[in-house]
Every structure is written in C-alpha cells, then in structure tokens.
Amino acid sequence: MSLPPGFLDELRDRVPISRIVGRKVTWDLRKSNQGKGDWWAPCPFHHEKTASFHVDDQKGFFYCFGCQAKGDALSFLREAEGLGFMEAVEVMASEAGLQMPERDPRAQERSDRRTQLVDVMEAAVRHFRLQLQTGPAGAAREYLERRGLDAATLERFEIGFAPDQRGHMTAALKAKGISDAQLVETGLAIRPDDGGAIYDRFRGRIMFPIRDARGRAIAFGGRAMDPNARAKYLNSPETPLFDKGRNLYNLGPARAAVGKGAPLLVAEGYMDVIALARAGFEGAVAPLGTAITEEQLRLMWRVAPEPVIALDGDAAGLRAAMRLIDLAMPMIGPGQALRFALLPAGQDPDDLIRTEGPGAMARILDAARPMVDLLWRRETEGRDFDSPERKAALDKTLRETIARIEDKSTRDHYTTEIRRLRWELFGGRKGAGRLSSWGTQKGGSDAEGARRGGRSALKSASAPARASVFVAGDPGEPMLEAMVLAICARYPELVPQVCSRLERLEPVDLDRAALVHDLLAGAPISEAGRAALETILSDAHVRTIPPLRHAGDAAKTAIILGNALDRLESFRAARAEIARAEAEIAGLADEGLTWRVGQLARARDRADHPPMEDTSDLGENRSELSREMARLKEEFTQKTRS
C-alpha cells in the first residue's frame, strides 16, 4: 500500500526512537544524557558487555560502534523483531496514536491471505502433534526415545508425526473448513497433474515445524521412518510463506539466546539443533535442507558478528565448509566473520553429545578456527609442493581468493596470516628461505657471483651529514642487518609485516641465519639464535637506536625497520650491478656500461629524495652516496678508455 506524504515523518516526530529501542535494551544511565535524548546501551544485535550502541532522539537514528548496525526506528523494528515494513509502520502508528491509512484493496487481500495461510500451518502443527500420540506413531516414538528426546523436548520443539496414509492430513484439515487451494498453497498437499484429488505431501515422517523469526509456522521438515524412502528428509516447497534460502531453523529462540550471551552455532540439521539446545547450547540454528545461502549468511550476521559453523565431520560436511568459504569471502569484514568447529570424522553434534557428553562439544567449539585456517587447509591439504611451479600455483590461487575480500583491512590481515602459514609450510625445507614470497612483495635473490663481487664497493660511505639513529658512521650491510634482527626480536609483532623481506636476507654467519629462521617461524629463539642476538646487542651502535633504547611507538618503529630493509636491498641491488659492470670491464666494455652505471647513480639519487624525518632516518648520507656512485661511474669510464 502507499502511504500519504509526510505520514512517516509524522510518526518519527511523534515517537522518539528511544521509546522503540528501549523495549529491547537496558540503557546505561551513567553514559546516557536523557535530557538531550542521547542514549547508550549494550547492542541488542550482538553480544557485548560495554554500551557501544548509541541512540540519538534528535536525529532519530541508532548506531552500534561494535557491529556497525544502524538505521531508524522502522529499521530497528524490522531487524530486532523480524517485522515487515508495513508491520513496523503499524507498530509505530499505534505508539503515536495515529490511524493507519486505508490499505490498497490488493495489499489488504495479500496480507489477509498470508494470515490465513499461517492459520492453516498452525492447524497442521496441532494435527501432527496429536498424531504422535497415536498407535501408528509407535515406531516414531521409539526412535525419538532412542535419540534421547524426552517429553519436554518434544513439547518444546512441537515435534509431530504424519501417518503413512495418502489423505489423512488433508481430510482432517478439510473437516476444519480449510480449502484444497489453501492446503496446496501452503505446500501441505499436492495436486496431481491430471487434476485428481489432492493428497498429503508428508507421509510416514516425523514432523519438525519451521517457524520464522517472529515465531509463525511457515513450513515443515519431515524425517522418513522408512529407511528405503527416496529422501531421508523432506522440506516444504517454496510457498508465499516460506523461502528456504532466507530462513533458518530455530532462528527465533536462538536469537533470544544470543542476546543473553550464547554463541550462535550453525549445525547441519534439525536433530543437531535439538541436541545442541538440550545440551545447553541454546543459540543453535540450521539451514533448511540446502547449502548455506548468501541471505542466510546475512541473517546470521544480523544475529551475531561471528557465527560458529559446526558441520559434520564427514566428507560432505567438509565439502560444505569449503564451499562456504567462497560464498563468504567477498562479504567478510569487521563484524562479519566466521569460525569453523570441525567435528571428529563420522560424527555430527548429536552423535558427539550422546556418546561423549556436552563437555566434548564445548571443547570442539572452544577450538573453533577462523576461516583463514580453513582456506589454507583447503588449498594445501594432501598436496605436494615439491616444485617452483606448484608453489607458484598455490600462491596464485590464494592471491585470487583473497583479492575477493572487499574490506581492505581484512584483506591485508588475510595476506599477512597466509604469509605466516606459508613460512610454516616451506620454512623448514632446504633453500626455503630463497622461495619467492607470497603476497605483494616480489621474490628473487641476487646471483652468487653478484654476492661475491664488489662486496666492499659501497662500504666506504662516510659519516652522516645530519642526526642519525646511530651514534656515528654510516652503517654497512652487517650493521643494518644487525639492526633489523634486533628490532624484530624486540618487536615480534612487526615480523609478519616484513616476513617476505626477511626471507631474502643474506645473514653474515650461521648464528644470524638461525635467528632469522626463529623469527620467521614464530618459534622460541634457539641457542644459536640467542648467541647471535647477544652478539648483536653487545654492539653499542645497535643498543643506541631509539627502538632498543626504550619502548618506542610501534608505527615509528615499523618505519625505522622498513627503512633499514630498504637500504639493505639497495646495497644488494647496487652490488649486483657493479659486479656485472666489473665483469664487462674485464672483457668487452662499451658505452652501454657507462650509460648503465650512470642510470644506477641517478636512480639511487631519485629514490633517496625527499629526505625522511629524523624519527625514521637511518643516518644515510644520501648526497655522499650519490657522489660515490658518480665517482664509480667516472672510474669505470676511464678504465674502458685506457
């Protein structure tokens, strides 16, 4: 229906948003300013202890600084109570004391029809529950008893039974005045293609009512008692009430439990949810006979920012988890994450709880892993990376997958974590430190001849012209390397940011090489690594750099570390070029050599400007280095002419 102009504005003017929200939250009166209509409370959309949910009566909006939920009073009613738009408007109008405009006849007809269909479904719930107490349901009762479902559980989840008769339910409901058309429209009955009499869709099955977030019966799930049945579980078809990709089993009770502090658990089926709830895990839900959909993911995130996916520990469960990664990857970000609880092989939550008790399930949930771990497992488990090509294929696949994450901060953290996992996989192998790095840094190392040739060519740089983090003198490669290793040992949280560059270090001795390995692996520092670190810290020049002299700002320390690595890499690049130049001088030299060395000097000069701030300066005498490169150019030119 259409609303008259200004009607919604009048509703918002008459009803403060705090009145609507206040029915669902407990205000933090110490933080709130009631006189100004400024209200704070713990967020009703995700579990928290602090009041990060803000309501502003003057602006008419709410916003959560934790999960980023936001909107006006109408959107709050829709999200918090599962109301449709017009239903939310009706609630607001009732609060404001306003008469709702006359409905469009067609809209009124649709609303009335949905109400009638809900009434039909409720009648079916009552019918199936009564049938569970009859003689033909004896086998069903025995099965439920074997599964540990007592009378209280049957009552709580309204479990019923559909007799194995073609027209039992349709006859009973038609006797109550329900029409054939309504039975077919709700999916309870099927009309044959030949136009014959309708018949029951559910026969010989234990019946599980499916309710929406507001508690209205909208569908059924039926478990077959016949082991030879075509489908073990049968759900209602799509109807005006039921869209299986947009609903979750047990959503309403689970949302209430999450609001009281329970985690949101996503299991595979009805019996899993019931077993979890009986064991005290009240925030359990399940998709409805299909793989989790994008709409169901968004529905979960409206209930909790980090649902735990507890899928069966069999091949099918793992496949479902792996598929979910691809679905969720573009959608994850702050307040929208997933964790995965992988059960023992061949067990589902119901099996585990019945055989080992709730404590075993609690341990599984406590050990739930973030999605990045499952992504890594998917791409590496059971595969051999014994060639550069296979490693490159892994890198390419992971890059492409992570590139689908839209939130930049989350994407960056995934990149860092994958780098760490990659080092754990390859770091212990011979030559692993030489592998090209995963991520945005380019790998590669200098040729052995370049490492040997011209090593001393750039070690004669004179003292810095301005204040430096070193006491005196321009650090050569061993000193820069010592500085890098000392900072990484003191600030291990910075290692993931530079791990690809640490892999390309060329340590001056075996002890330093051991220290590099320990830092990259995130392992306790070995005896050899400790020996290297003690030697490094015994040098007064290293001890006096600001990050080691006292606890420094992490951001500034990261800049100092990055600058030290920049200089090490520029030393290596210059050394490799000079080695190639010297080789040409010894053989056939031409003007191309002169041009290349000159280009190197100019490139170095350009790369070193503008100068860095003193807080991040490494004491490099940039103008002196440029003059040194020009001097080398001239020297080489003279040699080629002689």
From TrEMBL:
Name of protein: DNA primase
Family that this chain belongs to: Belongs to the DnaG primase family.
Catalytic activity: ssDNA + n NTP = ssDNA/pppN(pN)n-1 hybrid + (n-1) diphosphate
UniProt function note: RNA polymerase that catalyzes the synthesis of short RNA molecules used as primers for DNA polymerase during DNA replication.
Zinc finger boundaries on the chain: CHC2-type: 43-67
Keyword terms of this UniProt record: DNA replication, DNA-binding, DNA-directed RNA polymerase, Magnesium, Metal-binding, Nucleotidyltransferase, Primosome, Transcription, Transferase, Zinc, Zinc-finger
Domain notes: Contains an N-terminal zinc-binding domain, a central core domain that contains the primase activity, and a C-terminal DnaB-binding domain.
Highest taxon listed in the record's lineage: Bacteria
Organism field: Paracoccus pacificus
Keyword DNA-binding: yes
Region (Disordered): 435-459, 603-642
Oligomeric form and interacting partners: Monomer. Interacts with DnaB.
CDD domains: TOPRIM_DnaG_primases
Record-listed E.C. numbers: 2.7.7.101
Comment on bound cofactor: Binds 1 zinc ion per monomer.
Transcription found in the keyword field: yes
Named cofactor requirement(s): Zn(2+)
SMART domains on file: TOPRIM (SM00493), ZnF_CHCC (SM00400)
HAMAP family per UniProt: DNA_primase_DnaG (MF_00974)
Classification of source organism: Bacteria, Pseudomonadati, Pseudomonadota, Alphaproteobacteria, Rhodobacterales
InterPro entries: DNA_primase_core_N_sf (IPR037068), DNA_primase_DnaB-bd (IPR019475), DNA_primase_DnaG (IPR006295), DNA_primase_Znf_CHC2 (IPR036977), DnaG_bac (IPR030846), DNAG_N (IPR013264), DnaG_primase (IPR050219), TOPRIM_DnaG_bac (IPR034151)
Segments of skewed composition (Basic and acidic residues): 603-612, 619-642
Domain Toprim: 262-357
